[in-house]
Design a protein that fits this description.
Chain lengths: 272, 272
């Protein structure tokens, strides 16, 4: 069993990276709901000698508001511990002198406050949800098609996610739409991009083999982390589907019922 | 020059197939506007010994209403001369016992009046324009993801088209979105599907080398027709772009300024 294998290497670990939606909580109306046992599991990790970071492809809210929501749900978490695509994108934009046309959810706009958005020379898209209207898609398309070298930056490439009222299309679906419309390949910032995981490792000062990723998304969380040389464990909460355990290309180092079980296994093996 | 080559074979032609939007007229508010010279060009073709058919990927209106619009613009044209994807799709649905969830423009709905739409076991999408809302895309996605074997039928695979107020995203873009969301390959009905061109040739009783396609869309009109063994000429109206003339994979048998020039060249060479 893969599940028996990963805790065996727990003693070599120095850090843990947690996905958020589907691992800590389920999103939906209002703040959503904490997944049973996850608040305590985060607490136990914080009391251990392991470093802890949170890594999310959340692009509907700024980190400030997102973290405030998690705190209201009861999680001990601060903005400096959270890595999300928008701040990473802002660094890239500034580095390359890019002025974005933004196709993002209103709640994410504050992240781009300091970025010049006049006379756009690229499009940045996030999980815009209801903002993915025909009009807004046309507007983004016209910016891209008017550029000599279209640059499309996508904050993630997820297919769909689960809210309390059902499955919803994610940014990756609309990214594919604009890729096809303009015959261009998007640059993805966020999981599973190796650059994104690497920035979290750098912040902890760790090598990939010293860190473990725990997520509900087999491809973006587990596969992405493994692609960087980290171990990746999948939880059976959030968007987990039974078919993930026989996925043709990605195989988790372990599969556990929830974050609570993952942390129990991990900390027990570190004491052995 | 390719442009010098195709009229040379004009004497072997027995039929002409015309694309409509971007060749006969530019769409936009109201009925749109006829492209200068195109009404007379259609008239001249009708007075010649060539057979004439119209072939469109138009899926915003039923053929009845679409042809009425063209007649109002001044074209001599009747429903029986027009081939469009919706009636072809209805045949396929009935043949295979498929009950569609429709993601189409309201104006197209009458084409599907006789089709059972209860308890859908496939999704049929057309150029839904403003109907491509996040909500409607989620609804179609949920139908597909709930099927054991998702069947997605797309009425065309165009990237974009031109209306009087600018470029607009076409059905192909949203087809790619749902393909990615559900990890499924759409079945395309309409240009450039060979089956679709073949149905027009059959109606005329012609072999492919006896027919010429004239369109503004290099890939779907010209490339599609060439893929069937027909000659394909592109007009520099509608969605034509200068870069089409150095396209990496499709090369038109001729490129002319507009339908008027195409018909002049064609008829002049037939008299030689």
């Amino acid at each position: 069993m893969a599940a028996a294998e990963w805790p065996g290497s727990a003693n070599t670990l120095k850090g843990v990276i947690l996905d958020m939606c589907g691992v800590l909580y389920d999103s939906g109306e209002g703040d959503g709901v904490a997944i049973p046992g996850s608040i305590e599991a985060v607490q136990r990790l914080k009391q251990s000698d392991l470093q802890l970071r949170f890594c999310t492809n959340e692009t509907q809210a700024s980190r400030d508001r997102f973290v405030a929501k998690l705190q209201r749900l009861g999680f001990d978490i601060s903005v400096s511990e959270v890595f999300s695509p928008a701040p990473a994108a802002v660094s890239v934009l500034k580095e390359r002198g890019l002025r974005p046309h933004l196709l993002v959810y209103d709640g994410l706009l504050p992240e781009f406050d300091g970025v010049d958005q006049t006379n756009p020379n690229c499009v940045v898209m996030g999980d815009a949800a209801e903002k993915f209207s025909y009009q807004n898609m046309n507007d983004a398309f016209r910016v891209l098609v008017g550029l000599d070298k279209p640059v499309l930056i996508s904050l993630g490439q997820g297919r769909y996610y689960k809210e309390t009222d059902g499955l919803k299309l994610d940014v990756g679906v609309y990214m594919k739409a604009l890729e096809y419309a303009c015959d261009v390949k998007a640059e993805v910032i966020g999981k599973p991009s190796p650059m994104f995981f690497q920035s979290v490792l750098s912040d902890m000062g760790l090598q990939p083999h010293e860190a473990l990723m725990i997520g509900d998304d087999l491809v973006n969380d587990v596969g992405g982390a493994q692609g960087c040389g980290m171990k990746g464990v999948q939880v059976r909460t959030g968007k987990y589907r039974a078919s993930d355990e026989s996925h043709p290309t990605v195989s988790a180092d372990g599969t556990v019922d929830d974050l609570k079980e993952a942390v129990e296994l991990l900390l027990r093996h570190r004491r052995l």
